Amino acid sequence: MSLLDASGGGICHKEEVHASSSLPKHLDSDSPLLSVRSVAKRYGARIGCKDISFDLWPGEVLGVVGESGSGKSTLLGCLSGQLRPDGGEVLFDTRDRGPVDTLRMSEPQRRHLARTDWAFVHQNPRDGLRMGVSAGGNVGERLMATGARHYGRIREAASDWLDRVEIDTGRIDDRPRQFSGGMQQRLQIARNLVSGPRLAFMDEPTGGLDVSVQARLLDLLRGLVRDMGLSAVLVTHDLAVVRLLADRLIVMKDGRVVETGLTDQVLDDPQHGYTQLLVSSVLQV
Amino acid sequence: MSDQAYNFAYLDEDTKRMIRRAILKGIAVPGYQVPFASREMPMPYGWGTGGVQVTAAVMTPEDVLKVIDQGADDTTNAVSIRKFFQRTAGVATTERTSEATMIQTRHRIPETPLTSDQILVYQVPIPEPMRFLEPRETETRRIHALADYGLMQVRLYEDIARHGEIATSYAYPVEVAGRYVMDPSPIPKFDNPKLDDCPAIQLFGAGREQRIYALPPYTHVRSLDFEDHPFRATKADHACAICGSASSYLDEVITDDAGGRMFVCSDTDYCAQNAKGGA
């Protein structure tokens, strides 16, 4: 039984994950969805991130953890096309043309990808939402951007997605300003997932939310990831979040990867000195 | 007789050349906003400095000029711009749409169909159709470059969600020749169908925003809409109280403090001709 199939709220079944059949059921594809090859980004003389390579398989959630300034967000920016890396390759397995280096794609192609097959969940929902546009308009924007021109159907899809992220559909015409922080974050997720993406980039999706709201959001995310067979790169400094969501972990420090492995392997048996420090720094309640 | 202290039509020849280049580029790429070095004009911004510069740049001494403001020939803005060109260019002026070779307009297209011998110049306050949706100019330029116009549709979506129909009644966004989305200046959406396949050259000048754009003759112009909420050109559901026209765009005029009102043609020339012809 995989971590993703684990039922029961926020409880994590470590023993089960350590069993040999620990891969999620979606991992039946032969080729990785995203292949990252020695990606590097410098800010002048400073290193943003360096020599990052990994494969992300369909249906897999990869957690990226590390302290502030370790290059997590830089890496996410490079992968999602928001930053331009100085070197390396990011191969994405597109639906029509197979693996393509997204760094060498033309801007319109990358934009199209970013609003169909990709999702980007910002830490601050204000960065990812249009605050002056109603919830329905926010969710429908991706559809309209890819050619949907039927108001009734767009609204239906928006209403359906609000329901799936547990927002009362009666609030479809309210603006995000009138929503609580947790609702805004769920709205941002709906807005991103409405196009049925295959890969989600998440930057601290639960940052700034109180713990009960966090737990609900994580539960929701876990359900959506499982239902949609979504792959995700999840950047966070919160080890509890990766414990719950991620299949595999990358630990970063000073722009480099210092340790990788299955989530529970890394968290329960950290090898690198920094990872040991990180794991031992978690406060216990 | 023109004022000899000024060059023909006020602007110096180098400035006209610069503006003509922008106009030519605008005509070559219909709907694309061409930046130009807008000059200070002897009138305040918002009074048609863009339109005046475009008019001055394409004007010849043989031209017959008509200037309208919301359809009317006799309002302050129209009168002062007409006087301005009488004085600085000495051109003939008219109030008849059919006699004019150049028409500068603020927020209306004349009711009388235009011909291929005419140039229509619009005064544009805000050339960017997405200005209130996306405040960053860098981003709106990218949107235009990539024809990435989902955002415009979001605006119409919001209209329907809030009002039950597309409530935008003026400055209604259009798609030009299947490519650029353009703000037709604040003309009522009633006038939008007249933009399409028009035999006259249509030039748009925004002085403060320093943009010129254009529609060459017979350009396909489509008003944006939804399949289940198609574009409709609307007007007040009345006939003109003066000429009786049921098909022209109407202004609502309040006549007393007791709620009395009348509807009259916004196009004064059309109304006068129609009243004469009907009498």
In the CATH classification, which architecture of the domain at 42-129 and 198-282 in chain A applies?
3-Layer(aba) Sandwich
Task: From the 3D structure, determine the CATH topology of the domain at 42-129 and 198-282 in chain A.
Answer: Rossmann fold
Mean pLDDT of chain B: 94
- Report the largest inter-chain contact: A-B, 23 and 18 residues
- The main sheet of chain B orders its strands as 1-9-8-5-4-2-3
The neighbouring-strand order within the major sheet of chain A is 6-7-8-3-9-10
Q: Give the class-level CATH name of the domain at 42-129 and 198-282 in chain A.
A: Alpha Beta
Shape of chain A: globular
* Count of strand segments of chain A: 10
CATH superfamily of the domain at 42-129 and 198-282 in chain A: P-loop containing nucleotide triphosphate hydrolases
What does this structure look like?
- Chain A: One of its GO terms (biological process) is organic phosphonate catabolic process.
- Chain A: Keywords: ATP-binding, Lyase, Nucleotide-binding.
- Chain A: Residues 34-279 form the ABC transporter domain.
- Chain A: This is Phosphonate C-P lyase system protein PhnK.
- Chain A: InterPro entries: AAA+_ATPase, ABC_transporter-like_ATP-bd, ABC_transporter-like_CS, P-loop_NTPase, PhnK.
- The complex is a heterodimer of chains A (285) and B (279).
- Chain A is an alpha/beta fold.
- Chain A has a six-stranded mixed β-sheet with strand order 6-7-8-3-9-10, with helices on both faces. A four-stranded antiparallel β-sheet of chain A has the order 2-1-4-5, with helices on one face.
- Mean pLDDT of chain A is 86; it is low at 1-28.
- Chain A has helices spanning 14-18, 72-79, 107-116, 125-128, 135-145, 151-164, 181-193, 211-228, 239-245, 263-268, 273-280; strands at residues 34-43, 46-56, 61-65, 87-94, 98-101, 118-121, 199-203, 231-235, 248-253, 256-262.
- The two termini of chain A are 28 Å apart.
- Chain A has a domain at 42-129 and 198-282: Rossmann fold (3-Layer(aba) Sandwich), CATH 3.40.50.300.
- Chain B has 279 residues and is α/β, with parallel strands linked by helices.
- Chain B has two domains: 13-132 and 157-223, 3-Layer(aba) Sandwich (Rossmann fold); 235-279, no CATH class.
- Chain B contains seven helices and twelve strands.
- Chain B has helices at 13-28, 49-58, 76-89, 137-146, 150-163, 192-195, 268-278; strands at 34-35, 64-69, 92-93, 102-106, 119-123, 174-176, 180-182, 201-206, 211-215, 221-223, 250-254, 261-265.
- In chain B, the strands form three sheets. Chain B has a seven-stranded mixed β-sheet. In chain B, strands 7-6-10 form a three-stranded antiparallel β-sheet.
- In chain B, α1 (13-28) crosses α2 (49-58).
- The longest helix of chain B is centred in the N-terminal third of the chain and has 16 residues, at 13-28.
- Chain B is globular.
- The two termini of chain B are 37 Å apart.
- Classes of the chains: A alpha/beta (285), B alpha/beta (279).
- Chain A binds chain B through residues 107-108, 111, 115, 130, 133-134, 136-137, 140-142, 144-146, 149-152, 154-155, 172-173, and chain B through 133, 146, 148-151, 153-154, 157-158, 160-162, 225-229.
